[in-house]
Amino acid sequence: MVATDLQSLLDAPDAHDPTDFPPQDVAPGLRLLDDSLRCSVCRDFYDAPMSINCGHSFCSLCIRQALDAKQECPSCRQPATEAHLRKNTAAESAVKAWSESREFILRLSKAEERRHVGDLPAANGSSGHEDSEQRPRKRQRTLSEEDSDAEVEYLGGTSPYFSSRGSATNSHIRAQETGLPSKSQSQSDSPLSEHRSPNSSSVVECPLCQRRVPLESINQHIDSGCTLTPSAGGPSSSRPHASRAGSRDKDKQKAQWTKLFDGGSGAAPPSRRSKEKQKERASEAGEAEYLPKVAYATLKDRRLQEMLAEHGLPTAGDRAAWERRHQKWVTLYNANADRAPADQQSPAQLKRALKRWEDGLRAANARRAAADVDAGAHQRANSAAFRELVEAARPKKAAGTGREGRAGEDGRETTGMQDNSLIIVQRTLDVRKHNLED
Amino acid sequence: MNSRSGNATALRRLMTEYKQLTSQGAPDGMFTAGPVSEDDFFQWEALIMGPKDTPFEGGVFPARLTFPSDYPLSPFKMRFDPPLFHPNIYPDGTVCISILHAPGDDPTMYESASERWSPVQSVEKVILSVISMLAEPNLESGANIDCCKLYRDNRAEYERIVRQSIQEQLGL
Ligand SMILES: [Zn+2]
Ligand SMILES: [Zn+2]
Ligand SMILES: [Zn+2]
């Protein structure tokens, strides 16, 4: 089996967050800037940002879903409803500009950080110093990005995020910078290989769909809800153990969904397909209309089925499934209408998103069932790791049992402790991996 | 365009939280947290240091975090394993704290809505709340009744039991 290496997933070039930038003392405000353009619900850059009455902003989809659960601002808890939603076009254009400039600023700030570190005596163990030791190596991992980008099939449509996150131009620049050839350089030759566990490679198994995906595109793949699958994976890139819980209902649903996606335009070659997509999108962009919310309790089964059919949605499953499906559809549809016309998705793309969501629900149920079975194995692995941690804690405890508040020493002691536990956590992971492979 | 639906959103957000936790570290190194295995980002393990100047000082407490597929819309669950003897921790180790309760579901009826879960909360914020709960139990939302009584009526004995359990854990 292919192990998904946790660290590889996190190091993938497009798993981005504010701490990619040097800390405040090296690059004042950059982490804050990056953070300020992110939705505090999903922690990603704003997608169709909307403000509510209190002034807080969120992605349209994030806030619509949050308001479905509770009619208040997730940040400050002031009462709010969908009627309060207003497009935040300033944030939208700021995100666009930042997405385009982020790689560039990141490179400049890293160069500055290296200079900064060079100026200072290495003695002060600031976090900034550690960062700069590791980051440049990390970035070399993005070398083969270009290949994977080129081979990826953009089922989900083009996105301004994708182009900025995994920019081919930038990998060129990086390649020149590091003096390594950009293509055909195998990952295992990179200096990073020493960090990897022996059985990992540049291909990781997606934790959602179990397909094998090149490391460089794993986050794009996940973001796309597992639709964006690179052709690089070879024959094994088709799902190895696709459906464990293969109920009849599920098969029926699958058939319905397949018909929806492939029945009409599915047989068409990719080029024609994308043209159709554009046409669909254009026709929709003109109106920017919203779907009304529905009080499902008052609806007869028949009417609900009709409503699903009106939007070309399947009627598989029970009544609860219909309601879930329709409600989610309304939310996805309205959030999409909040996007800038150029960024809007076609109804077919929205339907795929809806299907992915339903698949996700099913996967979560399967996971819950599997987790119960695994509980025993977990406990065994856990107790082993814990014994080690206790061993690590013991001498410290013995040394510093004087326990009255000598603040400085205590502080250091805790930090030492943390390092130990990090190691233990890492070992725990190793132990578990071992167990799983047995 | 990236999908923000279902699992993908939850997974992405969990990865971001984990990445930030590992690159920045917890305040004062008070805890660590991360996925139990690379196959399942929805099960985490946390190791929490007992806060200073409390009977829990010196202990290291492992806890299981279980995330729902609609995280962060719904909160995760947190269970100390092995269980801790504490007024707000159920005998099976499950933590009872308002920040982990979705709005509208309040098993104790004493929590103010302003302390509940909201999608902008995070693993870090919750664990920091749990650490302050270790230091200051909240008897109004008790989860372990015997422990609540003991804490209220015989504080010294409560502290002795907690300290002793930590010593046993450390094998001292
Ligand atoms: Zn968001
Ligand atoms: Zn607000
Ligand atoms: Zn996937």
Note down, in words, how this protein is organized.
The complex is a heterodimer of chains A (438) and B (172). Chain A contains 15 helices and 5 strands. Chain A is mainly α and 438 residues long. Among the domains of chain A are: 14-102, Herpes Virus-1 (2-Layer Sandwich), CATH 3.30.40.10; 296-376, no CATH class; 382-437, no CATH class. Chain A has a 3-stranded antiparallel beta sheet. Chain A has a two-stranded antiparallel sheet with strand order 4-5. Chain A starts with 5 loop residues before the first helix and ends with a helix. Chain B has 172 residues and is of the alpha+beta class. Chain B has helices at residues 6-24, 123-135, 145-153, 155-170, and strands at 31-37, 40-49, 60-66, 77-80. In chain B, strands 1-2-3-4 form a 4-stranded antiparallel beta sheet. The longest helix of chain B has 19 residues, at 6-24. At the A-B interface, helix 1, helix 3, helix 9, helix 13 and helix 14 of A face helix 1, strand 1, strand 2 and strand 3 of B. Bound molecules: zinc ion (ZN) (3 copies). One zinc ion binds at residues 206, 208-209, 211, 221-222, 226 of chain A. Chain A: Residues 160-173, 224-240 have a biased composition (Polar residues). Chain A: Residues 180-191 have a biased composition (Low complexity).
